[in-house]
Amino acid sequence: MRAQFVLSEIGVGLRRNLTMTFAVVVSVALSLALFGGSLLMRDQVSTMKGYWYDKVNVSIFLCNKGDAEQDPKCAKGAVTNEQKQQILTDLKKMPVVDTVQHETADQAYKHYKEQFGDSPLSSSLTPDQMQESYRIKLKDPEKYQVVATAFSGRDGVQSVEDQKGVLDNLFELLNGMNWAALAVMALMLVVALMLIVNTVRVSAFSRRRETGIMRLVGASSFYIQMPFILEAAVAGLIGGGLACGFLLLGRYFIIDHGLQLSEKLNLINFIGWDAVLAKLPLVLAIGLLMPALAAFFALRKYLKV
């Protein structure tokens, strides 16, 4: 009988404050969708880092005849065979180095023609103008500085370049977007909490006569508060369910269908459905507990029992 009464009171409260309940549902749904999206963005960035950092190479570019005339770093002339052999020997001794691949000037010219054959400069380049290089794969991409320190400024070395620097700029941009989404989520969350508190206050005020009668007949404080707490929890749960729907639809239409980013950007290793599904229970739990706790603390102040 008590459970039936509580459920009936929940229905009454939701109907009486339908507009404010709708606002709570929308606010919770948007804030939790942004929260879930931020978590997925963080997973996506981590996945991309693991995928691309594993493919990062450190390149040691060697001086050629043209560099000897123009670049102060190559003032001692083009790299000699002895210098190349010494560089290779030192690289193989370094514990941070996984593999070393030597790219000759002819190979560099061939790769350039394959990638930039339509460029106006390609017709004026010759193989002897291209630089020889060592392409080094590190066991830990974060240890680039070890190689740079060991070989920068060495005779025959024009420069040491790390592809990781280019990727870091991309990941910094993605992390910045993620923090911006979290900031908007926090703002929406504050709005949702304020709406929940106001909704509970209005609901408690509109039913002050009923709660007064319940106090007179000896109802406990928890029993009087329960309908209001469950109203907020139901509204939050609906909002959490909508947020889960937004996340699923976003993954389906943005990556798999609609925009089809998984096909258009096939160089990006997108997160799978398992990552999305793993976040849904957390979103639902927050959608249920956050409004319930907000209502509980609001009632302690605004509902005199």
TrEMBL record:
PANTHER family: CELL DIVISION PROTEIN FTSX (PTHR47755:SF1). Keywords: Cell cycle, Cell division, Cell membrane, Membrane, Transmembrane, Transmembrane helix. The lineage of its organism: Bacteria, Bacillati, Actinomycetota, Actinomycetes, Kitasatosporales. It is a multi-pass membrane protein. InterPro entries: ABC3_permease_C (IPR003838), FtsX (IPR004513), FtsX_actino (IPR047929), FtsX_ECD (IPR040690). Residues 183-301 form the ABC3 transporter permease C-terminal domain. Forms a membrane-associated complex with FtsE. GO terms for cellular component: plasma membrane. This is Cell division protein FtsX. It is found in: Cell membrane. Part of the ABC transporter FtsEX involved in cellular division. Belongs to the ABC-4 integral membrane protein family. FtsX subfamily. One of its GO terms (biological process) is cell division. The chain crosses the membrane at residues 21-41, 179-200, 236-255, 276-299. Residues 56-160 form the FtsX extracellular domain.
